[in-house]
Design brief:
Blueprint (H helix, E strand, L loop, with lengths): L12 E5 L2 H12 L4 H15 L9 E8 L4 E7 L31 H12 L4 H14 L1 E2 L2 H9 L8 H7 L11 E2 L2 H13 L2 H4 L2 H12 L6 H6 L3 E3 L2 E5 L2 E5 L6 H12 L11 H15 L12 H11 L2 H8 L25 E7 L3 E8 L8 E2 L5 E2 L38 E4 L4 E7 L3 H14 L5 H6 L3 E2 L7 E3 L5 H9 L4 E3 L7 E7 L4 E5 L6 E2 L25
Parallel strand pairs: 16-17
Antiparallel strand pairs: 1-9, 1-20, 2-3, 2-10, 3-6, 4-5, 7-8, 8-13, 9-10, 11-12, 13-14, 14-18, 15-16, 18-19
Length: 558
């Protein structure tokens, strides 16, 4: 682990991302008169520059905006879309075809999503939220441990080709943490976007570079796909929780599974003393299993809408959680006990941004290019393209768990694949918390566990996030365990029949959270990825023609 992850107190608001300078950019936007949406958008552009292996203009995601004063919420679905020329059986059996080829690229949605939210809620000019990232790309930045580690443990950079290889494997040597890099190509792209908006990417000169890169890689995404892309504004779904509400995105995000899990956990009636009771962790793991068993029931609600929406309503109901909870006893059970119907689809990567401002406007934003470096295809304009077509269920692949593919998540033109992303806002009369995570399927368990730590087990935000976490997604049939889980808890779980496996992939999930109470704002970035929560600081990231007001270095409670 690296980075100090300190809680920061700030009169203007709080920003949490997994890169310190991106949190600072968001904080500077707040100091310059912007609101939470402005800050989230600016931070997101920054993350697409610095941690482009996880997110960027070539990807997509989800965003929730909530006005705590009026209790109004807005949900933005800018998930990638299957191209017009796709087919259910389009993927071959050849290794890698699904993950790192032109066919793996879905229609990107991030820029459209950021623009839609900014037009609806932003306070600053568009150029003011884009320019900080453009300036950073042009002036240069330090390679993060996250990006460098991904080229050691997640992908083989010796197989990078073309533009991607030139940027990240210059001279045949992969960049390492601490190396300095400039991205003038991406800076130019962001400058164009600052001036022209999303039209430049979806129908203009940047669009041409995307189509050329896709065609060169044997893909099927067309200019018509880009021109027809639409952001969907979805109703936010919520459940009552601990005297307030947990709000999240509808499918095709995994928000419904998160709400099912939250409802399951609340019914155990934990108290502050439960944090040291091994039984708490047995109950949590069993709840994980039942929740993940339902992940295969979801899909894009635009397709087969009646079945998907009816299932969604069932999943998020407290009555259904009560029924499932009654099946949780003092033992672990074989996977069939939890009644999963369909083969799970594994995904990863991702970045998350949480912001709360001085006016009680909160943003929870998760975005991704799917797996590390997405499709491993970069355009001449410096954009890494997603491989989100791999998130669809694939009937051509053999089942790992003797389960059929999810019929609600099969490839259809215009469809959005199921995602593990679950941006979330927790609120009650005196508190609002924007929270979310990166980490693929571990997003769901991680966000639920931290919410439970804060709201049910009465932990402060720092220990709630820093505390070692457990994860079980039903398949494969073992519990992942971070270092530091107490031995008495592990022994108890083993006695209940759990197969405990140390998690060896650096981290389980990475949480970003900002919580505002009646008189304080707390921002916390997970130590596990070396991030740092926002400090309202002291640095001017805007170019001369975008300057607003001079920043101050005041850091204080509200």
């Amino acid at each position: 682990m690296s980075g100090d992850g300190k809680i920061q107190f700030c009169r203007k608001g709080g920003v949490a991302t997994d890169v310190a300078i991106c949190s600072e950019i968001g904080a500077s936007i707040l100091q310059n008169g912007g609101n939470a949406v402005d800050a989230a958008v600016a931070s997101c552009f920054c993350l697409g520059v610095i941690n482009s292996h996880s997110s960027g203009l070539g990807g997509g995601g989800f965003m929730i905006v909530q006005d705590h004063k009026t209790q109004k919420s807005w949900g933005y679905d800018f998930r990638e879309v299957a191209p017009i020329r796709c087919s259910t059986d389009m993927f071959c059996r050849k290794d890698g075809c699904i993950y790192s080829s032109g066919l793996s690229i879905g229609v990107p949605g991030e820029l459209k999503g950021l623009e839609a939210a900014h037009k609806a809620h932003g306070r600053l000019k568009w150029c003011q939220v884009v320019k900080p990232a453009a300036d950073l790309a042009r002036k240069g930045f330090i390679i993060t441990e996250s990006l460098a580690n991904s080229m050691i443990t997640k992908v083989d950079p010796t197989k990078f080709e073309g533009k991607l290889r030139g940027v990240f494997v210059p001279g045949g040597q992969a960049l390492q943490a601490g190396d300095f890099i400039r991205r003038p190509d991406l800076a130019d792209t962001l400058d164009i976007i600052a001036e022209q908006g999303s039209d430049a990417l979806y129908s203009g000169q940047i669009a041409d570079t995307i189509i050329q890169a896709v065609e060169d890689a044997g893909g099927i995404l067309s200019i018509e796909d880009l021109q027809q892309y639409k952001v969907i504004e979805r109703d936010v779904i919520q459940t009552e929780f601990n005297g307030g509400y947990v709000s999240t995105m509808q499918a095709p995000s995994s928000g419904p599974i998160l709400l099912l899990l939250i409802n399951l956990l609340e019914g155990f009636n934990w108290t502050a003393e439960s944090v040291s009771d091994p039984k708490t962790y047995h109950q949590m793991i069993e709840a994980f299993k039942f929740a993940f068993a339902h992940l295969g029931d979801l899909g894009d609600p635009t397709f087969n809408s009646t079945a998907v929406n009816n299932k969604l309503l069932q999943i998020i109901s407290e009555e259904y959680a009560n029924t499932l909870r009654s099946k949780i006893d003092n033992q672990s059970h074989p996977a069939k006990y939890y009644s999963a119907k369909y083969e799970p689809v594994e995904n990863s990567g991702t970045t998350h941004i949480s912001v709360v401002d001085a006016d009680d406007l909160a943003v929870s934003l998760t975005t991704s290019v799917n797996l590390w470096f997405g499709s491993q295809i970069m355009t001449s304009s410096g954009i890494i393209l997603n491989n989100s077509m791999a998130d669809f269920s694939n009937p051509s692949l053999p089942s790992l768990y003797n389960l059929p593919p999810n019929p609600n998540n099969l490839i259809i033109a215009g469809k959005r694949p199921l995602s593990s992303m679950a941006p979330t806002i927790v609120s009650n009369k005196n508190t609002i918390m924007a929270i979310g995570a990166s980490g693929g399927s571990r997003i769901i368990s991680g966000v639920a566990e931290v919410i439970a730590n804060v709201m049910l087990l009465d932990l402060n935000l720092t220990p709630a996030i820093d505390k070692p976490r457990l994860h079980h997604q039903l398949y494969p049939e073992f519990t992942e365990c971070e270092d530091g889980v107490p031995e008495d808890v592990l022994s108890y779980l083993k006695n209940k029949g759990e197969d405990i496996q140390p998690y060896s992939k650096i981290f389980i999930s990475i949480i970003q959270a900002v919580m505002k109470t009646s008189n304080q704002i707390y921002a916390r970035s997970d130590l596990r990825k070396g991030g740092k929560a926002a400090i309202c600081l002291i640095r001017d990231f805007c170019s001369e023609n975008c300057k607003n007001t001079q920043l101050t270095d005041e850091v204080a409670p509200i």
